[in-house]
């Protein structure tokens, strides 16, 4: 059932009367926003793409029928276009193109538009604290007010797909969920009244983010060593809580190739091989993981690993006591996966 302005006003007043959500529920959202800012800065410095799953998404737009006809299993809804929005002020040098207003949380809002320039940025505005999910390409999330960017072709239509969930509901979504799991999560729940809008800007851009995207090195991350065809010696998963874990290998290994993958807040992996420790900054790589080669001297039958969350700014020491000190007062966040192969 469609809601008019009076309905939405009553909902907003009712929510305001209830007060703000529990700080415990908001903590996760704030952590993801802070993490998004860190990743954004890191990507600008390294010339890397922020992959799907980060709090702020930067993606290259894939034009053509495949992008337009991608199957979406989650329930969608229609919205109301704000005709006055194109006359509003620019953002980061990008001109306002389209704003669509929605009246429910928990459903996919789909917005189709024609970009006017090579850069397109979109952002969500919500009536109350909520988590915004961008599922246009992969999966990204942040608090309402965050932004996503993409490279676009002027005059070629694009479709943006996003959703908003109340903080209490978003806290029930498992960490590291992929688009398919997110679609099922939405389909299993009824929507709730909630006013929010998606604002889209496009055109030439002079911001630092757009400069990074315009750089010829954007998206050209150096290829990582391949894993195809290699024998798996061991695998393990865990939570980024700073605790050390020993991963046994199926057989003694000397020349090794390893991949560590960190998602949703896991950031620093301390990997020990034959008495030597290596700190792997795995947060920026996210779903692709970090791959490297290691030599284990006369061989090893186990790998030790400890992973810390992004709330820990850096890892100056790799001993157990040093890691325990870094985790003092820090909540575990995110998950990791270690894979060990024989070269």
Itemize the secondary structure elements and their pairings.
Blueprint: H1 5-17, H2 23-46, E1 58-60, H3 65-68, E2 76-77, E3 80-81, E4 95-105, E5 108-113, E6 119-126, E7 130-134, E8 140-143, E9 147-151, E10 158-166, H4 167-170, H5 179-187, E11 192-203, H6 208-214, E12 231-239, E13 245-263, E14 266-273, E15 276-281, E16 290-309, H7 320-326, E17 335-342
Parallel strand pairs: 1-9, 2-5
Antiparallel strand pairs: 3-4, 4-11, 5-10, 6-9, 6-11, 7-8, 7-10, 12-17, 13-16, 13-17, 14-15, 14-16
Which terms summarize this structure?
343 residues, alpha+beta, Jelly Rolls, 17 strands, six-stranded mixed beta sheet, 7 helices
Beta-strand percent range = 35-45%
- The unreliable regions are 18-25, 37-72, 216-220
**SSE series:** HHEHEEEEEEEEEHHEHEEEEEHE
Structural class: alpha+beta
Could you please describe the fold and organization of this structure?
This is P/Homo B domain-containing protein. Keywords: Membrane, Transmembrane, Transmembrane helix. This protein is α+β, with helices and mostly antiparallel strands. The protein folds into 2 domains: about 210 residues, no CATH class; about 110 residues, Jelly Rolls (Sandwich), CATH 2.60.120. It is built from 7 helices and 17 strands. The chain is elongated and about 70 Å long. The chain starts with a helix and ends with a strand.
